[in-house]
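#struct-pred
JK: can someone run the complex with BIS(adenosine)-5'-pentaphosphate? inputs below
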Amino acid sequence: MVDIILLGGPGAGKGTQGELMETWLDLPRVSSGDLFRYNLSQQTELGQQAKGYMDRGELVPDEITIGMVAERIARPDCANGVVFDGFPRTVGQAAALDALLAGMGRAVNVVLNIAVSEDVLLQRLAGRWTCSSCGAIYHRLFSQEKVEGVCDACGGGLMQREDDNLATQQRRIRVYQEQTAPLDAYYRQRGVLVDIDGEQSPEQVGRLIRAAIEAVLP
Ligand code: AP5
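RT: done, structure tokens with the ligand placed:
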């Protein structure tokens, strides 16, 4: 059983690495951003509540976000652990996650802090394309699909996220620095934080992550 958190700014590579980890760890990836986008696409009440915050690049309030994640991790596929992507993002969310996991007899095993400078974050976000069908992540320069605009994995069409415009990207980076960066100290104090140099190739970042997880696996 292992519960892992992927921490890092917008575009740091949380989704890219989380997708790979899902496969080799055989654990579900719970991405709060993906859950919000799914709710938006289904036009649920939750999606409507989140939309304005996401469009502005702000965090959705804790009570909405925590409730959504709590419901997701209570499902049977999360019984053996979870790869958390983009959650928690505030100290309040981190405390709530601790309480939720404690209720299941679990605790966060490792937090992977993927460090990437602001310039590189913006470059990555500007070139990102995502499959509208399966969510696979590509980049125009660093991780290109074989046939332009078509997902290698499922043949779906690629699209750019609505919040990937420059103003919202810059706002998301500010919000990360103000509200999420304090989690670094929160988890470092507990001895579960591992710094990962995220400014290397996706393969090399993946190797660093694998080594960090293997060090804590029973
Ligand atoms: P969310 O969807 O979580 O977005 P984010 O944190 O801004 O992160 P991204 O998904 O943009 O980036 P990523 O780190 O996954 O990078 P990726 O792998 O795609 O959140 C969106 C919104 O939802 C928030 O603004 C907020 O409103 C709301 N929200 C979500 N969670 C919330 C929460 N907990 N609380 C409150 N509100 C919440 O990579 C980026 C690009 O770089 C890709 O093109 C990829 O191919 C490329 N790339 C990746 N790694 C490398 C590498 N090593 N080298 C070169 N290129 C790379």
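RT: quick notes.
Residues 2-214 form a domain with the Rossmann fold fold (CATH 3.40.50.300).
Residues 8, 10-16, 32-33, 36, 53-54, 57-60, 65, 86-87, 89, 93, 124, 127-128, 137-139, 142-143, 163, 172, 201-202, 205 surround BIS(adenosine)-5'-pentaphosphate (CB under 6 Å).
JK: thanks, will look after standup
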